[in-house]
Each structure stands twice: as structure tokens, then as C-alpha cells.
Amino acid sequence: MEEKLILDGQKVANDVKEGLKPRIAALKEKGIIPSLATILVGDDPSSATYVKMKGNACERLGILSQRIQLPKETTTEELLHTIQELNNDPKVHGILLQHPVPSHIDERAAFEAIALEKDVDGVTSWGYGQTALGFGLYPSCTPAAIIRIMDYYHISAEGKHAVVIGRSPILGKPVSALLLNRNATVTTCHSRTTNLEEMIKQADIIVAAVGKPEFIKGEWLKDGAVVLDAGYNPGNVGDVEYASCYEKSSAITPVPGGVGPVTISMLLKHTVDAAERV
Q: Is 239 a catalytic residue?
């Protein structure tokens, strides 16, 4: 029996960041400091933690991190005005709106306000459309991370049946498109899917993006499936039941330490990409 492959996201993330260092140095020689502006609306503690993590990751690489904190009472119009100011600032190369935003704000309108060339988190419909057609500059960061992990570990999607559980506009839908562009046969499942277990049993590659802790069980997998767990839930657990899925899989991402670190590294990469296009 083949040895199980633990898909170490920290190792992949470090590889991405090492590749960015000479590119950042070259930009700075030209007087350009890659800059990411992160907007946080309200005081949600989880969102604040994510923003801090992203800011720290930027600073460790020499990317300028600009944090814009707005009160939770901020209106959609005020948020759109802030985004427009950042769009117009030539020193800002990437804009990230931390989501979710407070419920009274039109989140989709805010995402759409981000200039395409600064949409380093891949949240605009224009960017999504280009990603689906195969020429998008900045795919959503978690889907991009999943593809990067597959590439790093030489896991081919071609001819494989990939089952994606989740259809969010920044994870399930774009990762389905990216896998389809890699010549996988893709089934996208969701909360209304009937016979979900039977669907998963057919999968060579499983992307778990359902947002439910330990939802996917090992007995649902066929032997040798590749499991990419994009979930992160309270208690430091993903969307798959790790122990039982580990037994059935040929390769699996841990949680934490799997897709998460690579997601942040792809955000940094996209910011550097954007700075190089100025």
C-alpha cells in the first residue's frame, strides 16, 4: 500500500514566499513598494484576526500593508467612497475587503466597486468571469491556493473526476472553474444536492468547501481519493473528518496547516503581480 501524502500547506506557502522575495527586491530598486490595502468594517473578532494575520504576512515580506478600519455603522455609500479613493491611489496595488461585512451593507456592490487591476482577492464578477474563461489575472485566493498545492505535489486534475462540495462565489464556483480548465470532470455539489454520499464516492479529487465541521466522512470516499479541505471551523477542524478520511485517501490537507497558509501566500503573490503591472 502506498504511503499517505500529507499535503503540507506551510511548505507550499514558504515556497511561494521565497519566490516573491527577489521580485519584491527588484520592484523596490525601481522605487515601487508593493502595497495591499485591507478594509475592515465593524469589529468582528474573527475578521480582525484574519486582517492582522494578512498584515503581518505582508510586513514579513516587505509588502506595505495599509489597514482601513471603518465603524460597523458605515453605509454602503461610505464604503464605496473609501474603495474609490483606494482605486484612485497609484501607490495602492491591491485592495481586499474583509468579508463578511455588516448585514446592512450591500457586499456585492462593494466587491464590484474594486478596480479589476486591484482585485487581488478575486471577488469581482468581472474577475470571476475571466478566471472561468481561463485568462483571469487574480483568481480568488483559496481556489488559487488549492491549485497551487496540487501543482506543488504534482497532482494532476486531467481526466479525473473532481467533486466540489460548496458553491460560494469566492470558493466553490471558482475552484470548479479552475479544475475544469485543468481538464477535470467537475461535479459541484451543495446543500440541495441529493445523494451527496454517492457523488463523493465517485470522486478522484474532493474539494471540501461546505462550511460544516467534519461533515465529510471517510466511509464516503473511494480508496485513494485526494482530499483538499478548504474548511476552517471552531476547534481547529476542517470540513472533513480528518482521521477517517486520512485512512481512505492517498493525499490529504491537514487543518490547520493545509489550504489556509497557501491562501495568504497567494494574496501576497497577487499583490506583487499587481505591483509589477503598474
A: no
